[in-house]
Design a protein that fits this description.
The chain is of the alpha+beta class and 507 residues long. Helix content is 34%, strand content 23%. It has 16 helices and 23 strands. The strands form 7 sheets. It has a 7-stranded mixed beta sheet. The chain has a 6-stranded mixed beta sheet with strand order 3-2-1-5-14-13, sandwiched between helices. The longest helix is centred in the last third of the chain and has 27 residues. The radius of gyration is 22 Å and the shape is globular. The protein starts with a strand and ends in a 6-residue tail after the last helix.
Length: 507
Amino acid sequence: MADHVGAIDQGTTSTRFMIFDHDGAEVARHQLEHEQIMPRAGWVEHDPAEIWEHTQTAIKGALEKAGLGAADLAAIGITNQRETTVVWDRRTGEAYTNALVWQDTRTDKIAAALTRAGHDETIKRKAGLPPAAYFSGGKIQWILENVDGVREAAEQGHAIFGNTDTWLIWWLTGGPARDGRDEGLHLTDVTNAGRTMLMDLESLAWDDELIALFDIPKQMLPEIRSSSEVYGHTLADGPVGGEVPVAGDLGDQHAALFGQACFEPGTLKNTYGTGNFLVLNTGHEIVRSENGLLTTMGYKLGDAPAVYALEGSIAVTGSAIQWLRDQLGVISAAAESEELAGSVEDNGGVSFVPAFSGLFAPYWRPDARGAIVGLSRFNTKAHITRAVLEAVCYQSKDVVDAMVADAGLELDALKVDGGITANELCMQIQADILGVSVSKPEVAETTCLGAAYAAGLAVGFWSDTDELATNWAEASRWTPQWDDAQREAGYAQWTKAVERSLGWIEE
């Protein structure tokens, strides 16, 4: 068998391809950022064609760096930004419009109308999710209602939907039918399907009642498969350069749970990316949250029973640092935020609430908007930058507290991963705010690793999850330095700032 497994990580700001060896160690990667298209306030879009182009370049680039070819890859897994919605013409491969990103809030009226009509409890009971602009179902409905010709094309079977995992699998395995070649595979896995508000958590199938609520032609939807099985193979003349099994598919936060080896009920991780996502493995039990969390899929390995999870989703964390860089020009690179924030002892009384897309868990307040409060002439850009890092951590505390309440946990350490974990000051602040240790693994890019693990398991590259667990090793640990009084005062200031951000948008 080949000695490596590859993984595509199609994220909110970039696409990369990473190659891992049998020990789960990184061999090579290639990564490209794509454009963030914001045509008006609250709208966030991506160009699906650019994402596919960058995926091809990333695959070729990583293979070239590693000096490897298709024959060296046992399998390829895919992980992706969830909820981001693509609708395209299966005859041509052209998207009817830009992808509607998970951060996009244009469908908030659709979600509000469902709640007013009393459908929120049905959606929560079946899909585990509250009606929210966050999820794919409303985005599909918006495209059907607002892009000329799409509904007719969907009813005729030409327009099809997928999150970006489905979009990439379709292209990797064929794309449009042509020259005697079959069309690419139109499928997704349970973790991505579970983020649409259209899949029933118990049956793991598209639910006719939910589909009817959004008035979506069912034939648009991809086939739902497990997270780890051989779906098909890459094209011989495609970007991989040969036929390699495409054998893993996980939404990014589920992949990170898997990559962090959180295989036992009660284990959890927090991923620090564009947003933050705390996910707790609840085993084969569907746990209903009483504290504003999402009931969601963990993963499903082949024919084995599904594993479920509780999730605390935060919309804006890493993208707030990107906002400091791109919109405000406070820093020229994300890494500069650590030095600038570290140049002051504290936030100088400033709090920042990054409710650019409203507030997600545990508040679920689409009427909230971003706020910087507590400013005086004393404050500098360093205080604001430190407040941004603290906002990442305070939002995580909100969801950790909800998780502890829902699951009855006694948290003694928090496993973390993702890009922001390179910011040691931010991780120290996180330990201080939570009052527990923060632990980072040797492979911090656990999202990509989780997708590789799922693909490798499907083809026998790894034997079972016990073998995967032996690959996990701690690289860094931060322990709390604040006393209880400092922790309580800081959180009181944060909650006061959150209150100021609410009710800004009127329906």
